[in-house]
Amino acid sequence: MTDLTARDLPAPWSRFLIATRARIFGLSREEVSFHRRGFAIGDTSVRTHLERSGGAFVDGYNAAMESGSLEELKSALAEAPSDLAGFAHEGSAMALALLDILMPFRRSRWQRFAQAADDHIYLTHVGAGWALARLRRRRVPRWLGCDPLLEPLLFDGYGFHEAFFDPDRLVRARRRPPFSEPGTQRVVDQGLGRSLWFIECADAKRIARTIASFELQRQADLWSGVGLAAAYAGAVPSETLSMLAAASAPFRAHVAQGVAFAARARQRAKNVTASTELAAKIFCGMSAAAAAEIAEEAARGLPRDGNHDTYERWRARIRDALVCRGGQE
Which domain, by its residues, includes 271? Predict the structure, then answer.
């Protein structure tokens, strides 16, 4: 059995520790409700769908806090519906990264979970970024053991967390998160763009208007995040995606790149949804499987150095390949 407590303890003490940390660090589903966060209300069915995704994240987070072993956690996560499994794993990843940072006697919870949940490797990295944001950590701990190519995704999670929980500061006041490095800022903005799918309740007009209010140099990365969320979280019909495509025309390749990322994440987890297929068709001009293959192929040969420039090369390769094969402008 793979222990997720701070150290090997007698069973009564282990149960006490687990109950204590769950009580102290646990999250309520109310924390991710649109009403609590002050998000756009929008279409009822869309809001319900997106709040369902947030609920799965919270369930995964709490499951990790309440589990005494990796086996117990995997059993709890197996209960999540297929389309929500990624969100649940993302929540668990946040919880275990938090425990690694705050309870340092055993700093391998997140790494062992990421290895065991390899199908959801993208989401486990993003979830660790939520933990960094929650604790205001701006550097990735070396001992965390991230995949070097995917390490920048922690800052995507950081950007999502900050905008999701404080949209007035990050979105409406358009303040920059506290990162000076251009590469880091770009990935943070990708995460911020993903959050707009929730903050604006997947409303194409509202999203386009919000992005247009940001500095021009930030808009491409924001649109990339929107594309990722549209294909991964979904929730809208083809008409909405077509409106989004028209509104994002100058940044179409960036939206398509985000869609390809989402397609790869879902393909790897074997839970591609109708929303993923629809977004791939509209933005990439191909199937989700073809878009996922482009994202995978673009990563081949890149140095696994944890460098944000390498991550940007990956994104640029995807855009170039999509332009070539999908005819995106």
Answer: 149-329
Last residue of a domain, one of 93, 111, 146: 146
Q: How confident is the model at residue 103 (pLDDT cuts 50, 70, 90)?
A: confident
On whether the CB atoms of residues 225 and 193 are closer than 8 A, the answer is: yes
Overall number of domains in the chain: 2
CA 147-152-154 angle, to 5 degrees, is: 90
Name the domain boundary from 89, 118, 146. 146
Q: d(Cα 184, Cα 4) in Å, to the nearest integer? A: 31
* pTM for the whole structure: 0.93
- Same domain? For 180 and 125 the reply is no
Mind listing the pLDDT tens digit for each residue in 20-48? 676 778 899 999 999 999 999 999 999 99
Using alpha carbons, list the distances in angstroms from residue 108 to 89, 96, 264, 283.
Answer: 16, 9, 26, 39
25 and 3 belong to one structural domain: yes
Exposure pattern of 57-75 as b/e (b: 16+ CB <10 Å)?
Answer: bbbbbbbbbbbbebebbbe
Residues 71 and 179 placed together within one structural domain of the fold: no
